[in-house]
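Lay summary. Proteins are chains of building blocks that fold into shapes, and those shapes determine what they do. In this project we predict the shape from the chain. Here is one chain we studied, written as its sequence of building blocks.
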Amino acid sequence: MAYGSYGLYFEKFNSLESRIVDRLFLWRTRLDATLPAGLDRVVHVDANRYFSRSQHARVIDNLARMNVSVLLVDFLFADIINRDEDQQLIDASRKSGNVIYGLRFDSLIDQPVARPLSSDMKPAVAPDANGWPLVFEGDHSSFYNGTSPLTPYSELAAAARGVGFLNIIADPDGIVRSLPLLAMYGGAYYPSLAFRAACDYLNVSAQNVIVEPGIS
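And here is the predicted shape, written in a compact code that computers can read:
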């Protein structure tokens, strides 16, 4: 009955949900005043319109001036669009020194890739171009393998602190309840964007990440 009501009054329920979320945000701003001084903040810039590369560069530069610890960019900059504007983006990323860009695998599969790698399947070109040199203890057979990555173009990746994949995997009912933290590609390991950011923020190097598949 509940699902039926939701289907019949979808727009009204969505509107109500939006108003509830708005109210929660208002309550949160009031609660912030009671939080301990010096608590870390997360700045979320959500672009609901097209940003030029120079505008992205300006956002990165402004956030760097705010001394953010780690700067995640979940846009896929696969190609150079405008040489001047892209150079601004490259320069801002290099100057900031803590920008992590997203890459996307065509798919993540939880079984070994049986076919040999083709010439167009190469690890992402980035400061960690050979993947993350973490410690892997156990069987690789059930570990996630990425296919056909779409990566930041090489000049931008080289100016970044690193890369992390954006793929998510939903449960059979279509709901996302967990995120894969690591994936293999081309014989190397790659972290998710969120996991890479968390490790960088906590100053945990890849060498201090020990993976035991199915355990920890």
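What the prediction tells us: The first helix runs from residue 2 to 8.
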